[in-house]
Amino acid sequence: MDGYNADSIIEIKDLNYSINNKEILKGIDLNIKAGDFIGLIGPNGAGKTTLLKCINGLNKADGHIKIKGTDINKYTERLLAKEVALMHQNTTVGFPFPALDIVLMGRYPYIKRFRAESKEDYTIARRNMDYTHTGRLEESPVTEMSGGERQRVLFAKTLTQETDIILLDEPTASLDITYQEQIFEYSRELSLTGTTVVAAIHDLKIAARYCTRLVLMNCGEIVADGFPQEVLTSENLSCVYGINALVYKNRITGLLDLYINRDTAGKKSELVHVIGGGGSAAGVLRQLYEQGYNATAGVFSQGDSDIGSAEVFGMKYLVEKPFTEISDEIHARNISYIKDSEITILCNMPFGFQNFRNLEAALNANKLVIIEDELPETRDFTDGKATALYKRLKETAAAVITSAQLHEVL
User: Fold this and answer.
1) Which residues are within 8 A (CB) of 76 and not within 5 positions of it... i.e. 6 or more apart?
2) Strand stretches in 184-238, DSSP E
3) Are 82 and 17 in contact (CB under 8 A)?
4) 405 CB-side CA count, 13 A
5) Eight-state DSSP code of residue 329
6) Cβ-contact 276, 268 below 8 angstroms
7) Which domains does the chain have, with CATH numbers?
8) What is the pLDDT of residues 302-350, one digit of tens each?
9) 0.70 surpassed by pTM
10) Separation in Å, CA 34 to CA 67, 76, 224
């Protein structure tokens, strides 16, 4: 117990691990507190899985690991299994055990040799199967389950081990999106009750949403460690993943979010102007950003949610005072943006007397694309004046599409 940090449940100091003289982990230092939900992130080969296996005692590494102040080498296998549970990435099970039998395997640290499972063991196992929505699979052979079902059964097994530390290696690799969210919601709930969760995660958005702390790894080393907003920066993601990512706080959810620009050729030459408002332009601006277009936007009313999207993606936009018609000056600038653009996109926006001049400005488009998810009559609050002009625009438009078809014209 000498040198034990009372605030840490896991202490790692100068940890190194090699296979055939190839360094996998290099000088890892990490202190983990009880109740932390830590996401290990980084590209393939960063060392995330290897680190989890070192914490679980499967990999014998050089350096020091303490669990609750005791050196990991002083634990017997059974005692360590009462402290640390690891759910592996590989969910393959070769023998057709019923799901309940699989989950009961999590009780092995507590069952003495040549003893059968107790009533309490069954109660704990069934409670965790109910928690993971696998109770109906109790008698089902694990070999006949879908990957997602098998993953949730193994998660129930991990919980049935009843440890204060849970290690998850890519826990949602075989799950559909619904159960991906559930696994991380469960993990967050567990951390709030004092259980420490350390998970290797490939999905950066999920890591940002659920984890209280992120550890970014690359080439066997820790590159960054801290709160999600401290670790998930554009600079870090560019350095480690080699991607152009925009990291920001989502105004709707209040959570950290990110968009990845996958256009490796850089900015496209085409200029695009987006006419929107009332939230109608947000998805369009995002798609333009992700595909590398130079874009401008407006005219928005002050306080419009589309302004937040334009600011996040670093796009120029025009704004007018709320509850007023677009002024001559702003109208002229809007026409200038439109004439300078090769494509003008008119979003599925509501029309009122305040933004009517946006439709007039669209008459100047070099190539007009209209997004129509709803008939203009249902969005017209100008006694039909906007609908009449909208129909004129449709006659000159290069394309009239739904939001889902936008990628076809970009």
Assistant:
1) none
2) 196-200, 213-218, 221-226
3) no
4) 13
5) H
6) no
7) 8-258 (3.40.50.300), 271-409 (3.40.1190.20)
8) 989 899 889 888 899 999 998 999 999 999 999 999 999 999 999 999 9
9) no
10) 11, 22, 20
